[in-house]
Amino acid sequence: MSKKITIDPITRLEGHGKIEIFLDDQGAVTDTFFQIPELRGFERFVVGRPIEELPRIVTRICGVCPASHHMASAKAVDGCFGNEVAPLAHKLRDMYYHAHFIHSHIAHFYALAAPDFVMGPDADPAVRNILGVVHKVGLEIGGAVIGARGKAQEIQRIIGGRNNQDIWCLPGGVAKGLKQDELEQIAPWVDELYDFTQFSLQLFRDIVLANEAYVDIIVNGPYTLDVHNMGLVDENNAPNFYHGKVRVVDYEGNEICKYEQHEYRDYVAEHIEPWSYLKFPYLKQRGWKGYVEGIDSSLYCATPLARLNVADRMATPKAQEAFEEMCSVIGHPSKLLLGNHWARLVEMVQNAEMLKQYCADPEITSDEFRVIPQQITGEGFGIVEAMRGTLTHHYTCDENAICTSANLIVGTTNNNAPIQMVTKKVAQTLIQPGKEPDQGILNMVEMAFRAFDPCYSCATHSLPGEMPLQVSIFKGGEPYREFRRCC
Amino acid sequence: MPEKLQIAIYWGAACGGCDVSVLDTNEFILDVDALCDVRLWPIAVDGKYKDVEAMADGELDVAIMNGAVRNSENEHIAKLLRQKSKIFVAYGSCAYMGGIPSLANLTSRDAIFETLFMANPSIEPGNRTVPLPVSKVGGHQLELPRFYERVYALNQIVDVDYYVPGCPPVPSQCKAAILALVQALTGQAPAPPKGAVVGAFERALCDDCPRTRTQEKKIKRFYRPWEIMQDPDVCLMEQGIFCAGIATRSGCGVRCPKSGIPCRGCYGPAPGVVDQGAKLISAVSSIIDSKDPDEIDRILETLPDFTSFANRYSVATSLLQRSHGQ
Q1: Which of A51, A364, B165, B323 has the fewest CB atoms below 10 angstroms from its CB?
Q2: Can you tell me the mean pLDDT for A315-344?
């Protein structure tokens, strides 16, 4: 008699998620399905709207990473106006976006990832959360984390008027510039944030790397997939979050393709399943081959680690040092998905160093932050790196700049198939015939998708909490046994 | 010390921004934690649907729900939380008025599916698959919530006691609203009247906007925000840039107009305004400098897609509610 395990609701998703695990008669995992039951339909209901309104509508796709959608949308809208943009606006947007990356990465690392490592993957669930972390590492460090996150948010607010549900970008530039007194307020915070990134790396060394058991989980655990990597890079193949070309590199380090944002349709396509509202992107030229690993696979990850996997180097010196240290432990490219947590810290160093560069740029307070576009060309593409993966917006508009179509491939969507696969792999490894899965095993299942920081997860970005899970095992369709964790 | 208040926080069709706004009250969350048992809050603490189902009716002192109702799961949980709570709060623009997701009421479910799963340029060539409420894969039955024809605000599905406006509510207002409820429940202050908007002011956004306004200025055309370089000190509407401030409740801190960006009305109708869209039609007609019908038409052509400006956050609860013919 077959059994089914349902994990529903998985929380810390943006919206709602569900995992179905099917077992055979012996209790071995045969299939898993990671379902996303949410859909709102932005790509349709932005049609008919003035195109310049889209950057402030699509932010409501995600209240955790609205700045990513705002930036991708702003670039796509610029394209609809022939890409006439004040050069300073690109600098200001990039600066703003680095601040956003920092506070998002801080929140993910400390609130979501850290509990598994600081407290331990099999710690008492009641303390395996950010509050447990604060108690263990001390209130002083907890305060420093909250302070750093708050300052990065405040930098974003000062530059662009809001630190959530962004409004700032207009066709041709941005709605306000950065004044000298605002810069003077920001600059010392940027130095503090840079120091905080170094502190975070040291904390990672002390708590994770110094612990053989944790290193063993990262390096030898089931958290690995033979799929490829995607990320934006600059002309030197260093990571870039706002500009650049999309580079896809296989898991052995060979470049599969490198494309400009307007070429995305030649390289990426989306498969659809009847059992999830979320689509499954794949490398179009290889075709949809299903959920398979291997060098011929058409699947890829778009994550912090994937971004560093496609990069040959970092763009700034201290980030380069951190990158080399990481690669010496997990390899390059690396298939070790838990390496994503480390990759976030490395990226944060580059973000802070870039902020420092912008603060020292004499042009940054100039008032030429917007131009009035002179033409409506009707089609635009915007690709940025969202915290959780490559984000693509593609719009068309009519001669009156009214939106006629929109296509979005969202960060986490890229990882939909890999998340399916790693969930199955981890479940198959850990759920053994004849042995009922306990709560510790469920946390190990969660750690699989937590590595992706899926953008259906907002919890990642703030306060406490252990992901609550309810697992029901069905035998022949009838409830058989139920587990609850932290309830 | 009185027994702790029992609360639940939940999201429907939402972006997560409302939950983040609660978390952005920072250390205040610890005060909430000291005063309340948070029985359900998927973003931050533990608790399950099943736990809520097992509660007695009215066992929760307060349920705070953000997000609109877009599918059958949203509706189910909204009704469940209403049944289990003494006070039910609609938190944020989507819960209050349908929010940005209710712009979908200007189109249809079929059109959304057609666009997302058939027409978009990155769909797998030859695809004929769309998500289904029930599907069979390899002998397994899998289910998804039913996607409704339109979006509903919470008060169109359940009885709502209070509203907290904003997309998202600013943290200081979130704090004020929670404190008001706690004080009411602990007998320290009278409860706000049922149906009240809490966590916002009893005046329009324009009353708090630092931009100067003559109230006599008339305009010969509207400008879209990218079409002109605006004066940062003068009322946007009087510069011809459409702004919803006059029809919108204050409480947000006037963040958008202070940053050179017009208000789109996320805090909902100002006190005394029934429908933001209707009020904005009246505002537009009074600022147009013409009595000639042809010229008025030409002026209005400079303000395309007026519906989505008039009710950017409130299509679901507007006089319109859904597009013509749907």
Answers
A1: B323
A2: 95
Q: Any bridge partners for residue A11, and if so which?
A: none
Q: Which residues of A touch B42 (CB under 8 A)?
A: 9, 11-13, 459, 468
Any CB–CB contact under 8 A between A253 and chain B?
no
Q: Give B195 to chain A, closest Cα distance, Å.
A: 26
Coil, strand or helix at A451:
coil
Put simply, the answer to whether B45 touches A464 (Cβ < 8 Å) is yes
User: Which residues of A fall within a CB distance of 8 Å from B227?
Assistant: 372
Chain B residues whose beta carbon lies within 8 Å of the beta carbon of residue A49: 103, 305, 308
Question: For residue A487, which residues of chain B lie inside 8 Å, CB to CB?
Answer: 46-48, 51
* pTM recorded for the entire structure: 0.93
Sequential DSSP letters for A293-357 = -STT---EE-SHHHHHHH-SS-SSHHHHHHHHHHHHHH-SS--BTTHHHHHHHHHHHHHHHHHHH
Residue A164 lies in a domain: no
Amino acid at B83: Q
Rounded Cα distance between A371 and A381, Å, is: 19
**A378 found inside a domain:** no
User: Which neighbouring-strand residues pair with B135?
Assistant: B142
Furthest-apart CA atoms within chain B: distance in Å: 71
Q: What element of type H or E holds B73?
A: helix B72-84
Is residue A462 situated within a structural domain?
Answer: yes
Homologous superfamily of the B5-100+151-185 domain (CATH): NADH:ubiquinone oxidoreductase-like, 20kDa subunit (3.40.50.700)
Residues in chain B: 326
Interface predicted TM-score of the whole assembly (ipTM), two decimals: 0.95
Which residue in the set B120, B225, B258 is minimally distant from A407, CB to CB?
A: B120
Using one digit for the tens of pLDDT, what is the confidence trace for A264-294? 999 999 999 999 999 999 999 999 999 999 9
Q: What's the pLDDT at A461?
A: 26
Closest by alpha carbon to A228, among A270, A278, A269, A283?
Answer: A283
Which of A3, A10, A25, A39 is the best residue to mutate to test the B interface, defined by the most B CB atoms within 10 Å of its own CB? A39
B55 touches chain A (CB under 8 A): no
- Put simply, the answer to whether B46 touches A466 (Cβ < 8 Å) is yes
Q: How far is A159 from A161, CA to CA, in rounded Å?
A: 6
Q: How many domains does chain A have?
A: 1
pLDDT of A129 higher than 70: no
Q: Note the pLDDT tens digit of each residue in A338-391.
A: 899 899 999 999 999 999 999 999 999 999 999 999 999 999 999 999 998 999
Whether A316 shows a pLDDT value over 90: the answer reads: yes
Percent helix, strand, coil in chain A, to 5, is: 45, 20, 35
- Domain positions in chain B are 5-100+151-185, 107-149, 205-310
Task: Provide the shortest C-alpha distance from residue A224 to chain B (in Å).
Answer: 25
Output the DSSP codes for B180-205.
HHHHHHTTSSPPPPTT-B-SS-SSBH
B228 part of contact set with chain A, CB < 8 Å: yes
For B118, which residue in chain A has the nearest alpha carbon?
Answer: A272
A63: nearest CA in chain B?
B17
| pLDDT one-digit tens code per residue, B242-301 | 999 999 999 999 999 999 999 999 999 999 999 999 999 999 999 999 999 999 999 999
Q: Which of A17, A1, A65, A11 is nearest to A384 (CA)?
A: A65
Q: How far is B53 from chain A (nearest CA, A)?
A: 13
Q: What is the distance between the alpha carbons of residues A210 and A205, in angstroms, rounded to a whole number?
A: 6
Cα gap A266→A262, rounded to integer Å:
9
What's the whole-number mean pLDDT along residues B211-239? Answer: 94
CA neighbor of A111 nearest in space, from A125, A98, A95, A130: A130
Neighbours of A166 (CB within 10 A): 27
**Residue A450 is assigned to a structural domain of this protein:** yes
Q: What percentage of chain A reaches a pLDDT higher than 70? A: 86
